[in-house]
Amino acid sequence: MIKVRKANDRGHADHGWLNSHHTFSFASYRDPTQMGFRALRVINEDRVAAGQGFGTHPHHDMEIVSYVLQGALEHKDSLGNGEVLRPGEFQRISAGTGITHSEFNPLADESTHFYQIWLQPESSGIDPSYEQKRFDDNELSNTLRLVASPDAADGSLLIHQDARIFLSQLDADHSVQATFAAGRHGWLQVLRGSVTLNGEALETSDGAAISDESTLVITATTDAEIMLFDLA
């Protein structure tokens, strides 16, 4: 079963400095039918104006994965990390017992476009930690590259949940295939371009919840970038 979440059906908040679309209920957007999917709790597509950002704020007991599509995102946290993420870079924060951080667009003349994803951890009260990584384009081209996993397999980011995240940059008319074990679920998020998922058409910023599908065939109808989640 594939249930499409169209981009235009998401929650939306425009604060001037921040233009944010919420796949699931978040902040002032509340929809009891959209409270998350499996371990996924938040998929926010954010655009932060030049020179603006999120002030220092706390998190706890959440796995937070951010991925920058355009611009730059400057991160500072209570663990002493201070980094700038560029397009194509991932950040993983395990909030655990508690962490505070800020996120800021340091550019004077360009907005920052990024996805922020929250997953519920398998257990509460872990030690907070931070990780940042970029995967080479040649590792992503027309294949599903593992970018996050519970065992940091194949150089992926470590997340404290039985979930795996894959990223792919697809040329038009190319396909990738994924196989899900019995009882597993998936989520596909189209970051750029357009694809079909087992024949179902998806456009930029569309998502899809996947259950009871043992095999997925994802075909790019234009050049595209996708993120695929394999969830318990």
Distance between the termini: 16 Å
Secondary structure category: mainly beta
Which consecutive residue ranges, at least 5 long each, have pLDDT under 50?
A: none
Strand content: over 45%
Domains (count): 2
CATH topology of the largest domain: Jelly Rolls
Order of helices and strands: EEEEEEEEEEEEHEEEEEEEEEE
Shape: globular
Strand order of the largest sheet: 1-20-17-22-15-13-14
Biggest β-sheet strands, sense, barrel: 7 strands, mixed
Percentage of residues assigned to helices: under 10%
Pfam family, one: Pirin
InterPro entries: Pirin, Pirin_N_dom, Quercetinase_C, RmlC-like_jellyroll, RmlC_Cupin_sf
GO molecular function: metal ion binding; quercetin 2,3-dioxygenase activity
Organism: Rosistilla carotiformis
Describe this structure in words.
The protein has a 7-stranded mixed beta sheet. The model has no long low-confidence stretch (mean pLDDT 97). A hairpin with a 3-residue loop joins β2 (11-14) and β3. The protein has 232 residues and is mainly β. Helix content is 2%, strand content 54%. The protein has one helix at residues 137-140, and strands at residues 2-5, 11-14, 18-22, 40-48, 53-59, 63-70, 73-77, 82-85, 89-94, 99-104, 112-119, 129-134, 145-149, 157-158, 163-170, 175-179, 185-192, 195-197, 200-202, 207-211, 215-220, 224-231. It has 2 domains: 10-134, Jelly Rolls (Sandwich), CATH 2.60.120.10; 137-231, Jelly Rolls (Sandwich), CATH 2.60.120.
How does the SSE layout of this entry go?
Elements: E1 2-5, E2 11-14, E3 18-22, E4 40-48, E5 53-59, E6 63-70, E7 73-77, E8 82-85, E9 89-94, E10 99-104, E11 112-119, E12 129-134, H1 137-140, E13 145-149, E14 157-158, E15 163-170, E16 175-179, E17 185-192, E18 195-197, E19 200-202, E20 207-211, E21 215-220, E22 224-231
